[in-house]
Specification:
By secondary structure, this protein is an alpha/beta fold. It folds into 2 domains: about 90 residues, 3-Layer(aba) Sandwich (Rossmann fold), CATH 3.40.50; about 130 residues, Rossmann fold (3-Layer(aba) Sandwich), CATH 3.40.50. Helix content is about 40%, strand content about 20%. It has 10 helices and 11 strands. The strands form 3 sheets. Strands 1-11-8-7-5-6 form a 6-stranded parallel β-sheet. A hairpin with a 2-residue loop joins strand 9 and strand 10. Helix 6 packs across helix 7 and helix 6 packs across helix 10. The longest helix has 28 residues. It is globular, with a radius of gyration of 20 Å. The termini are far apart.
Length: about 300
């Protein structure tokens, strides 16, 4: 077996959170208390776990969290009213709407209702468009975490060929945009791609985000590739339920230079970058408010 590096997402997330805590302390010295509002609609067990973990991390780094739990029969109009209230509340810097929403709700309309400067998930079309243009915006947390892991593992990414497997709005598309901003050559593979395996074998970097357990095996990988596995799939393995990624980990190991495990790879980075986005949003909003208050008033008389 060739030597490989196991990319430790837990350790990387811990480093990010240490810096976030320092940034929060710095903001507090300026009488700024970063605050994150989390909205959970319904009783989905997985969503409840995710929300609980996000709130715990917020408290650990000194971010004030405000939780809004809404009943499963909440209407889209009621949700929009809550979002409007949070948009107008200057003490709230970030708004996180936990997905998925109940089937009767208009998810896109709700996400678009969140003020772009409080959109810490990076899902608003204004942030999506800005990211595609290479501007600095609040970017989706999972792709941002993946990019951090790549930079920590590979150093300079310029000129590397990156293959993104999957074209979702949450991971695949923003991941491709971030890699382009980092001056990678980017190929996006999806269910209609021809010769997907052959294209993937050309990649220096592979980001798997397709949601199919163990789809990517050694035959997809160039020797020495760096692999980021975003997939989290629960399977029944010999009567035991466990989590696996989109990459066949054991098959990939002899071929890769570095790879993320599942669990313990990308997952911790998502929450870490949610905290980072909240602090970034708090600072940007404070600077904007200060600029408005310092702007000269011109009398019309």
């Amino acid at each position: 077996m060739n030597a490989y590096t196991l990319i430790d997402g837990k350790a990387a997330a811990a480093r990010v959170l240490v810096q976030v805590r320092k940034d929060v302390d710095s903001l507090r010295e300026q009488d700024i208390q970063p605050a994150l509002a989390v909205i959970l609609v319904g009783c989905d067990p997985a969503s409840q776990v995710y929300v609980r973990n996000k709130i715990l991390r917020a408290e650990e780094v000194g971010i004030r969290s405000v939780e809004h739990r809404l009943s499963p029969d909440t209407s889209t109009a009621q949700l929009l009213n809550l979002i409007a209230t949070l948009n107008a509340d200057r003490s709230i810097n970030g708004i996180l709407l936990q997905l998925p929403l109940p089937a009767h709700m208009d998810e896109l309309r709700a996400l678009e209702a969140i003020a772009p400067d409080k959109d810490v998930d990076g899902f608003h079309s204004q942030n999506v468009g800005g990211l595609s243009q290479g501007r600095t915006v609040l970017a989706p947390c999972t792709p941002s975490g993946c990019l951090y892991l790549l930079e920590q593992t590979c150093g300079d990414l310029r000129g590397k060929h990156a293959v993104v497997i999957g074209r979702s709005n949450i991971v695949g598309k923003p991941m491709a945009a971030l890699l382009l901003k980092a001056d990678c050559s980017v190929t996006v593979l999806h269910s209609r791609s021809r010769d997907a395996q052959a294209l993937c074998r050309q990649a220096d970097i592979v980001i798997a985000a397709v949601g199919r357990p163990r789809l990517i095996n050694a035959s997809w990988l160039k020797p020495g590739a760096v692999v980021i596995d975003v997939g989290i799939n629960r399977i029944d393995d010999a009567g035991r339920s466990r989590l696996v990624g989109d990459v066949d980990f054991d098959s990939a190991l002899p071929h890769v230079a570095a790879i993320t495990p599942v669990p313990g790879g990308v997952g911790p980075m998502t929450i870490a970058f949610l905290m980072k986005n909240t602090v970034t949003a708090a600072l940007a909003q404070h600077q904007a408010q200060r600029s408005q208050s310092e702007a000269p008033c011109h009398s019309i008389y």
